[in-house]
Amino acid sequence: MTTAVGGTGLEVSRYGFGGAPIGNLFEEVTEEQARAAVDAAWDSGVRLFDTAPHYGLGLSERRLGAALKGRSGYVLSTKVGRLLVPRPRTGRDDEGFDVSAELTREWDFSGDGVRRSLEESLARLGIPSVDIALIHDPDDHLEQALAEAYPALAELREQGVVRAIGVGMNQWQAPLRFVQETAVDVVMLAGRYTLLDQSGLPLLEECVRRGVRVLAAGVFNSGILATPTPGSTYDYLPAPAPLLEKAARIAEVCERHGVTLPQAAMAFPLRHPAVASVVLGARSAEEVATNAALLSRPVPDAVWADLASEGLLAEGSEEPAVRAE
């Protein structure tokens, strides 16, 4: 099953492959493991693949480009805003990726920076153009991203270098400005429309009004919605006790209906008509197979009704979606 991305002609699969783990996020992934993960995603029907220069200092882009070479009928997304530049020291990357640090990231949301970033991404991916380009995490550079990065991407869209443009962030307020003030096609929203956090609902409602599609990422809030036990993380920090308690209550409701918490966490964002795909990172073929199996299992409407009646879902997020075309 696929969903159209506005008038771009792109169709994305409901399950999208997130490429951060194959960029050695937190731990090393071998070339063989990375290729097997992409192959498994393809065999599971995944046709949306997401990456970024940030992921492993370009390693994710190189691996994904190599794995997709010779295939067709997929949608590939990458990002702009961080340039990779040489640095005169050795050691390991200090931003969570298990890679050597011959390169470093420099924020650059200027028009020239965006064009250079995309050109270098295309070289790493081994392709002449890309389907989706997202302005990546412009939290501290929002005005420049709106005034310079967006117009540069819009020009590249007109030139056919990219087919759809947008923004990818871990907050909803800044993407809302992009949706209201520009002609973006897509938003990647991480962690702000999940079973634990529906704060992004105003953004999603505006996206429906304006025909902008949402790619939902971070659906486990970095771990707590996969395993809600002491030591779990929420947004990459130790989860506070109230959130652990809420996650456990959600899990109890799910279990009453024979549904696991991860299964519900994946299914929840797709109920909203703005959401076209859930993007799930995976570092192995086994993780891909698990994700695909969970997404294929329907979650009874009674789960959402019970979560709402117990005050565990925000008002407006419990209703079944009527998908916009």
TrEMBL record:
InterPro entries: AKR (IPR020471), NAD(P)_OxRdtase_dom_sf (IPR036812), NADP_OxRdtase_dom (IPR023210). It comes from the Bacteria. Coiled coil: none annotated. Pfam families: Aldo_ket_red (PF00248). Residues 16-308 form the NADP-dependent oxidoreductase domain. GO terms for molecular function: oxidoreductase activity. GO terms for cellular component: cytosol. This is Aldo/keto reductase. The lineage of its organism: Bacteria, Bacillati, Actinomycetota, Actinomycetes, Streptosporangiales.
